[in-house]
Amino acid sequence: MASIMKNSNSLRKALHTGNGLSFGAWQMLPGTHLSRTIARCGFDWVCIDTEHGNIADDAMHESVHAVASTGVSPIVRIPANEGWMVKRALDAGAHGIIVPLLYTVEDAKKLVEASKFPPRGRRGFGSPFSMGAFDNSGNLSGFEYMNAANDNLLTIVQIETKEAFENVEEIAKVDGIDVLFIGPWDLGNNLGYPVQGDFAPELKEAIARILKAAQDAGKKSGIYCPSGEFARRYADQGFQMISVVNDMGAIPTAFTEGLSKAKGTWGHTAAQAVKGAA
């Protein structure tokens, strides 16, 4: 049954197939219809954002299964590096977790312990929900899930604090960390190069250092992007787990485009909408 989990995790498959490139979307608004609609657009994964998004625990559980039902990987960004938050997301059936606010190598090791079943970690066993996000036929038992989970779920750490950046090479070497994921806006703020337009040269250098740290450690790399143009830029640089768009940006942009075209004011109005959603 390990093959069921391996084959169901579309993000993991994409990262380990061909050039390892995957594209994802970011969900910040609650709702299973929204989850399924986003997932059906062709993405490899959808991040259900419980850190900055308006998504509570029960809505997260439901969105995980809504995304998984389309054959796309539900990835949950938890609010902080807390063991109980890791447990809630994985017990819901998340194919992986994105974890913000790491600072040290010990933080990374603590995260791995929380995300792995013994003997590799300390994750508790007992969720009746996890299996359904990999096999909705009911053929995957809890014990089979437990035996396959450690090798088939993704642990993704955000490199966004100054301390994590300074320790990035050592964090990348931690066994059990699968992806180094960059949040450029928080990284820029924390390094003293806030993003207010194009990225500062120093921030671009920091992003390149994180990419190299991941590559040198044999790990995957990811980055948050607000648009397809941004996403293509970082795909060309060698990043592999790349967000393309978020719902709170896409919805006002699409609505404004339709209305402004109807009014004959498309160019100016759409530019204002994109600026406001950034």
Automatic annotation (TrEMBL):
InterPro entries: Aldolase/citrate-lyase_domain, HpcH-HpaI_aldolase, Pyrv/PenolPyrv_kinase-like_dom, Pyrv_kinase-like_dom_sf. GO terms for molecular function: aldehyde-lyase activity; metal ion binding. Signal peptide: none annotated. SUPFAM superfamilies: Phosphoenolpyruvate/pyruvate domain. Belongs to the HpcH/HpaI aldolase family. PANTHER family: 2-KETO-3-DEOXY-L-RHAMNONATE ALDOLASE, PHOSPHOENOLPYRUVATE CARBOXYLASE FAMILY PROTEIN. This is HpcH/HpaI aldolase/citrate lyase domain-containing protein.
